[in-house]
Design a protein that fits this description.
By secondary structure, the chain is of the alpha/beta class. The protein has one domain. Strands 1, 3, 5, 6 and 7 form a five-stranded mixed sheet that branches. It starts with 5 loop residues before the first helix and ends with a strand.
């Protein structure tokens, strides 16, 4: 079976709309920040970029570009109360089980088993869409999310690209 070439498919799709080929961010280094305490004492939050929103909330634009929207997600809400609006990937499996791309139930199980200290009071869905203005993510959107994470006492964020 041949792998699905999403980058090529996305470049073809958006090239037909007049957009330049996507330029991936390349970083020469990344700061390593070890956990300050054992994982079993950490509060953990999730961030998914897969177009997930609560059914009562406005859906994400499945063909978004430069979408810096970030929604708070109630970790106690049942997974069948969410919708997925994203045209960048095949989410048929996630439509059947949201945990495929947003493992909220698995994270609760880890907390119940004592593997992590606690599930954060909010998870996050956002940064969906081809982001051509990455400086806004770096300078505005991501720092704003970091402040929310700090306010929630989050020790560890699991980022799930979709």
């Amino acid at each position: 079976m041949e792998p699905i070439r999403y980058v090529d498919a996305l470049n073809d799709k958006y090239g037909a709309m007049g957009f330049p080929p996507y330029r991936w961010s390349e970083n020469d280094d990344a700061p390593w920040t070890p956990l300050a305490k054992p994982l079993s004492d950490c509060t953990v939050a999730l961030l998914v970029s897969g177009g997930i929103s609560h059914c009562a909330a406005a859906p994400f634009d499945p063909d978004a570009r430069n979408d810096h929207r970030v929604d708070a997600i109630d970790p106690g809400e049942a997974t069948d109360q969410y919708q997925i609006h994203d045209s960048y990937y095949d989410h048929a499996d996630a439509d059947r089980d949201l945990n495929c791309i947003f493992p909220v139930d698995r994270l609760r199980e880890l907390a119940d088993a004592g593997e992590i200290g606690a599930v954060a009071k909010r998870h996050w869905s956002g940064f969906m869409g081809r982001t051509y203005n990455r400086s806004k993510v770096r300078d505005e959107s991501a720092p704003a999310l970091v402040e929310e994470l700090k306010a929630d006492g989050v020790d560890l964020l699991v980022a799930i690209p979709a």
